[in-house]
Task: structure prediction
Amino acid sequence: MSSFIHKIFTNRLSRLRICILFLLAMTALCLGLGLNKPVATKTVSATQGEALPPDALAGMTVALDPGHGGYDGGARARDSGLWEKEITLQIAQKVEEILKAHGAKVVLTRREDVDLCEGSTASLTRKRRDLQARVSIALEAKADVLLSIHLNEYRARGESGPQVFYQHGGDAGRLLSGVLQKAMIAELKPKRERAALAGDYFVLRSAIPSALVECGFISNAEEEKLLLTSDYQKQIGMALAKGLAEYRQLKQMQQPQAKEQP
Result:
């Protein structure tokens, strides 16, 4: 009897050992497959907070146009009383610093409170000549992109948020504006998230991919205060730098596809 029980116990113990060995073998096999399997990595956009490489814009020429100037003051801030032309120049100079720090060559259409046309009487013709002079500077510099820096204003003081415009019908400007809009939302985190829109602006009508960047509303008390600070102006510069870096990557990705087409 004891011999029979011993035999049953031994058989069960043998089967248990076989099962354990089988499970260990399967575990080792799964681990081996897991080690050889490539790990999926998520591509993080340069507009989601990470640092931008110092050479991210190397070889890129950017024309920056501080909107208005001279006789043309633009809109006027409700609280500080500053003219748009003064603030756009401050912002453009901060943007220039950031873009240069990341390898870009930057050309400003003006560095002082001046307009770019002759004459003493404000008129539509004079304004048109002023805008044409700004475009000509970008063309002569062989700029890759033209960014015209502006500030928004509205009678309702609650309106806020940056917004980028492109010339209606311009595909290159549309792509550029969309990427810049996304970057400004990610970097500035405005209360109101706007979308890039088409418009009809003379300064955007050249062959250069162009965008008109409304950095915010100077009719909004809270946003006006931000727009006047050096730190926020640098944030705008970083947003535009990241947007330009992503824009260039997208254009480079499109080039091989264009070559493959007959």
In short: Strands lie at 61-66, 105-108, 145-152, 163-167, 197-199, 210-217. Residues 171 and 209 are 8 Å apart (CA to CA).
